[in-house]
Design goal:
- The protein is an alpha/beta fold.
- 54% of the residues lie in helices and 11% in strands.
- The protein has a single domain (3-314), classed as TIM Barrel.
- The protein has helices spanning 3-7, 20-26, 35-41, 48-61, 65-85, 104-120, 136-147, 160-169, 178-189, 200-215, 229-234, 245-252, 278-286, 289-314; strands spanning 12-16, 30-32, 92-95, 128-133, 152-157, 173-176, 220-223, 240-243.
- Strand 4 (128-133), helix 7 and strand 5 (152-157) form a beta-alpha-beta unit.
- The protein starts with a helix and ends with a helix.
Length: 316
């Protein structure tokens, strides 16, 4: 077996793309999308009919200019998600507008709307993960949504405090961003790279995985945002890994043996189970300069891509 096939023996593979052809080629269980991936997807000929349908839906719903853009954006994300669900057997992650990252009620309302659009198209909510930024407000929105049977994927996760709060809230899944953590430390340490076993992004996910499994949290750990295959190999055995087509191809082209490095039956942690209230969460997260910078940057970048997507939707 190649390394991608070996990885799939003990980790659920998730496609980090909206590219239908890539998803067909690598047969992942699930797929994830975000504003940046949808922005890329709408440049593909395959999605031009969905773009037209989203515009028509927004016009039929009426409302002011921003309401129509919101409706078109959500409908487009759902149409792309529905297309992907025709290929993957599992779930699709669809993201709430990043500009709502600090507004719990608005995030809940938008998530319900997205789920409603999927259900109108005959897609069961059990096949959807609503993506929310791992702000305090986003985590509280997820806590409520989970009670309503709407499973959530908490994204832009960089700090251990974020991971603790997500587990406390009972969210379905978290997405620690391995590559962006790596980027920050590489710049801060003025180095070109790290030994795979000392990669800061890898160590962050390993710590979270061990904490969750040791203390019996059900929240799924899905490593995300990889920069190289060594990072993926070091997390073999993680619950799920969402991987870009380019890195899936690299793994598929290697016949070397792949070792399971994470095992939920054999975990060890020095982190005591500790439920965080808002003030402790904010202080702990604020105490991590990498996490505060990367969370803020990630929200800004997703919001910027959302605006670019809206420009495309509003053009004829």
């Amino acid at each position: 077996m190649n390394q991608l096939e070996q990885l799939q023996q003990f980790t659920t593979l998730v496609a980090d793309t909206g590219d239908i052809d890539a998803i067909r080629q690598y047969t992942p269980e699930d797929a994830t999308t975000n504003p940046s991936l949808i922005l890329k997807a709408v440049s593909l000929p395959h999605y031009q009919p969905q773009l037209a349908l989203a515009r028509a839906f927004a016009l039929s719903e009426g409302g002011d200019a921003q309401q129509q853009l919101d409706n078109a954006s959500d409908k487009l994300a759902v149409l792309i998600g529905k297309e992907i669900l025709g290929i993957v057997p599992g779930r699709i992650s669809t993201e709430v507008d990043a500009r709502l990252s600090f507004d719990t009620p608005a995030s809940i309302q938008r998530a319900r709307k997205i789920i409603g659009l999927y259900e109108q198209d005959g897609i069961d909510r059990k096949r959807i993960l609503i993506k929310l930024a791992s702000t305090w407000e986003g985590i509280q929105a997820a806590a409520q949504l989970e009670k309503e049977g709407i499973n959530c994927n908490l994204t832009l996760l960089f700090s251990f405090a974020q991971a603790q709060a997500c587990a406390d809230a009972g969210v379905f899944l978290i997405s620690p961003f391995v590559g962006r953590i790596f980027d920050w430390y590489k710049k801060a340490d003025s180095v070109e790279s790290y030994a795979p076993e000392k990669d800061p992004g890898v160590l962050s996910v390993q710590r979270i995985f061990n904490y969750y499994k040791t203390h019996g949290f059900d929240t799924v750990v899905m490593g995300a945002s990889f920069r190289n295959c060594d990072q993926i190999r070091q997390l073999a055995g993680c619950d799920r890994l969402t991987i870009s087509p380019a890195l899936m191809e690299e793994l598929a082209n290697s016949e070397l043996s792949l070792t399971k490095t994470l095992d939920q039956e054999n975990t060890l942690t020095d982190d005591i189970k500790n439920r965080l209230d808002e003030s402790v969460f904010r202080w702990s997260h604020n105490h991590d300069p990498m996490a505060t910078e990367k969370l803020a940057e990630g929200i800004r970048l997703f919001a910027a891509d959302q605006i670019k997507l809206e420009h495309i939707l509003s053009s004829n």
